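Weekly sync, protein design subgroup
Attendees: M.S., D.O., the rotation student, P.L. (late)

Item 1: inverse folding check
M.S. brought a backbone from last month's batch and wanted to see whether the design step gives back something sensible before we order anything. D.O. pointed out we never logged the input encoding, so this time it goes straight into the notes. Structure tokens as presented (112 positions):
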């Protein structure tokens, strides 16, 4: 899936059970760091965290959004991270045509 915004990605993480929303007031100086550290040290990398009530800020704070292979795959729109490697490897092996028309013909492939 291609995400048009970070909000859309966060909502998808929530729907997939990959997000913990924290509504309690938290201090951004050391408290957020302590909570995030404990979560990220879990064997699977822990869940993504969304702090919605950060003291001194009107903005929510998202942490650990890419903290697992599953979430990275979701963000990149692939089933497995190896899929991205295979795509990049294939693109690096391409020979660039000498003609302008040949180069223009490659544009749709590069869009992927």
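Designed sequence read out in the meeting:
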């Amino acid at each position: 899936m291609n995400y048009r915004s970070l909000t859309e990605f966060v909502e998808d993480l929530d729907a997939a059970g990959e997000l913990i929303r924290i509504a309690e007031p938290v201090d951004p100086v050391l408290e957020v760091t302590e909570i995030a550290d404990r979560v990220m040290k879990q064997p699977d990398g822990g869940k993504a965290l969304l702090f919605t009530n950060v003291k001194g800020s009107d903005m929510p704070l998202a942490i650990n959004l890419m903290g697992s292979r599953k979430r990275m795959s979701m963000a990149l729109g692939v089933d497995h991270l190896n899929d991205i490697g295979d795509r990049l490897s294939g693109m690096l092996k391409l020979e660039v045509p000498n003609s302008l028309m040949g180069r223009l013909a490659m544009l749709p492939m590069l869009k992927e």
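Discussion: The CA atoms of residues 52 and 58 lie 9 Å apart. Helices lie at 6-15, 31-40, 69-76, 81-92, 100-111.
Action: P.L. to compare against the previous round before Friday.
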